[in-house]
Design a protein that fits this description.
The protein has 244 residues and is of the alpha/beta class. The protein has eight helices and 13 strands. The protein has an eight-stranded mixed β-sheet, with helices on both faces. A three-stranded mixed β-sheet has the order 4-8-5. The two termini are 23 Å apart.
């Protein structure tokens, strides 16, 4: 999940001209004005229960966190890169709690790999499991289940190939509350079989899968991974949910 690099850099230039408190809303509304928000955001109000909390795993600069804060009771934002945590915290919202940690299926320290292009860090592609080159950082990782959150109604996961690890580390929470899951299924370097495995696992615990294309939301199956894209956002809703 993310916007084109050139657009992101133009927004950064504009953001530097205004107080930090307003940078995140500017980024959100700037992308909205330019039609650069991901199509799934259009449906958040139908997917997010306002009486329940939301989890943003891989928050980056907080675009989804900001959008979710307008729908959910509270949002817990997990981001392993400290500079990005500071960016979200500058917004000073009492509906956002920022945790400087990645979510995984273990607790401790892992190496985060941040790709570099033209001398710039591409933080939207930072990964615990992918990439062979780039800046390496030791970051905290924790299991979602270890936080003991109650009334979890929505989980967004954008972790560049570590989706299954986040799910396994939060499986008790997921089984207890049956939250809607919005997952970027990342299948770079012929990893489609891993995505199929996770897809079918979620189907097996009571979810159905929905993707959004130019015609709107559509129920999908594992054949979606036959496409040539490197990733795909998929919404998993518990069976019986009134979305579609």
């Amino acid at each position: 999940m993310g916007i084109p690099i050139n657009l992101a850099r133009k927004l950064e230039i504009l953001e530097n001209l205004i107080p930090r408190r307003f940078q995140l809303p500017l980024r959100y509304y700037g992308q909205r004005l330019l039609g650069a928000l991901e199509p799934e955001m259009k449906y958040l109000s139908l997917l997010v229960n306002p009486s329940m909390i939301a989890i943003d795993a891989g928050a980056n600069k907080g675009i989804y966190s900001y959008a979710l804060s307008r729908c959910a009771k509270h949002v817990y934002c997990f981001e392993p890169i400290s500079e990005l945590c500071a960016y979200i915290k500058n917004y000073q919202s009492n509906k956002l709690t920022v945790i400087n940690s990645a979510l995984s299926d273990e607790t401790g320290k892992l190496t985060l790999k941040i790709p570099i292009k033209d001398g710039k860090r591409i933080t939207t592609r930072a990964s615990l499991v992918c990439h062979d080159e780039g800046e390496l950082r030791q970051v905290d990782v924790n299991k979602l289940d270890s936080y003991g959150y109650k009334d979890v109604g929505f989980i967004k996961i954008d972790v560049e190939g570590a989706e299954e690890k986040v799910i396994m580390g939060g499986l008790s929470t997921i089984k207890e509350y049956n939250p809607v899951l919005l997952i970027e299924m990342f299948y770079e370097k012929n990893q489609s079989e891993r995505c199929r495995k996770l897809f079918n696992f979620l189907m097996g615990i009571g979810y159905k899968a929905i993707s959004i294309d130019k015609f709107g939301p559509q129920v999908c199956n594992e054949r979606i991974f036959e496409c040539t894209e490197l990733s795909r956002n998929i919404i998993f809703v518990p069976n019986g949910h009134n979305f579609l």
